[in-house]
Amino acid sequence: MIINILKKQIMNKVIAPLFLVFITVSYPQINNSTLMGEWIFQSMTTITKAAREEITIVYKDEKNIETLTFDESGAIVYNVTNDGIKKTGRGVWYSDEAYVTIIVESDTTYGTIEVDDGSLTIITSKDESDQFYGYSTILKYSRQ
Q1: Quick one: which of 30, 38, 70, 106 is 20 to 30 A from 23 by CA?
Q2: Which of 113, 91, 115 has the alpha carbon at shortest distance from 102?
Q3: CA-wise closest residue to 92 among 24, 14, 12, 19
């Protein structure tokens, strides 16, 4: 039993982080190198698929500021101010064609990504569950 506990601890503390690094290095990044660098939040549109579809739009203003920085190494850095509360952090990202995965701490975000004429669009979706309505979120960013 002690051996099983040690195996789990080794798996969680050593092998899992190495696996994450392996994934980051192994997956090809988006072919278009225009994704690299800093992006500034412009808007977020959330479409909630309730009995009546609801659309909520948040625009960049002095209370809602965000920057994302994508690095060729697979690192992502974010700086967010949301309703006056600041948060910064780091994570990893990888893409396969038009699909992107972003991992920050224990959160993993899957979505589609498009870079076009100095504009970045990330679209994420969640299916309906027993506890929550389904939704899609469209995030728009621009270059500094």
Answers
A1: 38
A2: 91
A3: 24
pLDDT, average across residues 63-92 = 92
Entry field: residues in the chain: 144
The CATH code of the domain that includes 30 is: 2.40.128.280
Q: What is the DSSP string of 95-128?
A: EETTEEEEEETTEEEEEEEEEETTEEEEEEEE--
Structure tokens at 74: 């697979």
Query: What is the domain extent for residue 59?
Result: 2-143
What is the residue type of 108? T
The pTM score is: 0.72
Strands (E), the chain: 37-49, 54-59, 64-70, 75-82, 85-96, 99-104, 107-116, 119-126, 134-143
Q: Rounded mean pLDDT of 5-31? A: 44
Structural domain count of the chain: 1
- 23 by Cβ neighbours in 10 Å (0-12 / 13-18 / 19+) ranks as middle
